[in-house]
Amino acid sequence: MISNTDLKVPLITLVGPPNSGKTTLFNILSGKNYKTVNYPGSTVEYYTSRILAKYNINAELLDSPGIVSLIAESPDEKISIDSLYAHPTLGIPDLLICTVDSCQLTRHLLLPKQLISSGFNVLIVLTMIDSLAKRGYKISEQKLSSELSCDVVAINGRSKVGLANVISQINSNIEKTKVTDKKKVTPYNSSEQRKDLVDTFDEIEELVKSVYEPIKTKEKIDLNSANKELKVLQDAVSGNGFSPDEITLKIDRILLHRFWGIMIFLVVMGITFTSIFWLAQPLMDLVDGLFSNLNSLVADNLNPGWLTNLISDGLISGTGSVLVFVPQIIILFIILGLLEDSGYLARGAMLIDKPLSKIGLNGRSFVPMLSGFACAIPAMIAARTIPNRKERLFTIFIIPLMSCSARLPVYALLIAYLIPAETAWMGGIVLGGIYLFSMLSSIVVALVINKFTKRLFSSNETSSFILELPAYRIPKLSSVLNHTYNSSKQYLLKAGPIILMFSLVLWFLTYFPNINPEVDKKGLSSEQVQNVERAERLENSFASDLGKFIQPIMTPIGMDWRVGVSLISAFAAREVFVSSMALTFKVTAEGDEAESTLLSSLRNAKIEATGEKLFTTATTIGLIVFFIFALQCLSTVAVSRKETGGWKIPILQVVTFTSLAYIMTFITVNGLRFLGIQ
Amino acid sequence: MKTAAELNYGEKAIISEIDSTHPSSRRIIEHGFTPGQTIELINKPIFNDPIAVSIRGTIIAIRKSEAGCIKLK
Q: pTM for this one?
């Protein structure tokens, strides 16, 4: 990428407090084609874009994360603020556009005041003027501008009224910076911060007094409303701001109700959860089917050999395992975007904060954790909404313990093995029990890990929950879709290559060195021959060497190397365990029949050394326990690396959860045997 | 002295000072909780914590442990 300074294109950075309409303005100015950049060496993300050609401004636009003030509280906030003073690749912004909610002038002017005293060129854009107009007021841009000695312009983000003024103000500000030398920018002086802050607020209250003006309309001449008007104006003028939005207060009386509030919350989250689970399923099946068809198309039409297999089982299946998560990511982000945009998500976080704070988490950890029951990948991406770094990393850390949907086929197979067909209804109860057990054990694990968070995540941030509950509004679908599109694109670009690479390594391990196994083809159809060949190849592969190598570890938990191979293959994705078991136990049937023959071949499987039965009640329950705890998903590891900005946490996760799984399985199998259950 | 954590449903009060020894005190001031401002307890959902208060026309959810450093007149 050519850096900004080389091109001499002015850099405009958008700043503003959360809920000030910053992102709406960014979307208006940039259109859809923005890209994300990371601040070097961190997970703090920015969006950059050229301003749309139709506005005729030749400048790079950078959207920074929302901040309340220039005094950093957390490491991530410090990065956001430092980058304003000197972004390592983009430099010092030529112009800062600061969005300010017109109804919250006394709160939101803190940031621009600090920016101006730092020496930046600031343009203030007043947003939500429609809400202010509903209350019968407008802001005198001229007065505010002369009070703050910077340009002020107002825009209605929904109807885009005022956009032309914003554009011309940006242009004239950019022209100004071309003539004058770049101002000297000095980091905001944060000594005596608390007293300073109070003084700044006092100054703001003083200057705001003169800028609110009533809008005179014919309906408002009767005495009653004139009196009311005067009172509101007095309130605004005295620095108290307006009273909170009436409709919002009414809705909150229900949504934050002591009883109904939590009920509605549980229903909303239940719907969210089931939609990522059930709504995404047909789409995931479609992606899955598409790639397995493509796989067999290649396998059938190209000359058999390792290259064909690399393309079909390696590349195509690998790409499939990247793309199969896209439907869940899209659906989760659309729902979360709608909830967030409407203002409900902040309330949900508030409702659930208390119980989660008991185990060292935050109200905002809830949605990512719940999403983890569908799939850890979108869940980890959703954890970005947690501002406290320690709590975000902790949330990401325990997400793999949530029982994701990929474990279902494994549980289904093992439950079917445990429970005779006549009492199939028992299966549902057992499955429910598995979920309950996994939830309870995640709470216990979280409690234990909570003792080590300071060292684990090297952070001393104190836990805090101060969150603005924005006024309710109808969510804007276009901006939600825009954000969803970009999140999915990021997943594909950043986590995709790692997942693909790991899939290829796994393919190599399971395919080589015995690439052309000799099998007895007599009396077998070509399909059966293929299956026997695959089983034979796997049996002599590096993966099976690895499986035999770990045999001493498998014996104490009552398994043998064949289960070991399947567990290793399951790292590609948990559901691979079932097909890999089918392969290693030499199942040569197809479709529905495969399951029943797999079950019967499992029943007949014996441990080679001793001749004992391999899959007993004890070992089968042990396997289920193993899957509850083990982090067996390369995609999760890849996304965890991306979201935490390093290998430390993903490696810790794999080591912790896999050894925990091993220990728990050991206890289960031997405990059951001790109790006389074989 | 009473703090914001002890407000009852719908009760209004004026802030006298922010306890500067609390680790969150700066963040609390940044959200607009300054001496002389009126705050009102808007909501106390299930678990009674965090609470929702209005300040300068905005509703803010805040943990009781943090609201405890907002001292009232």
A: 0.79
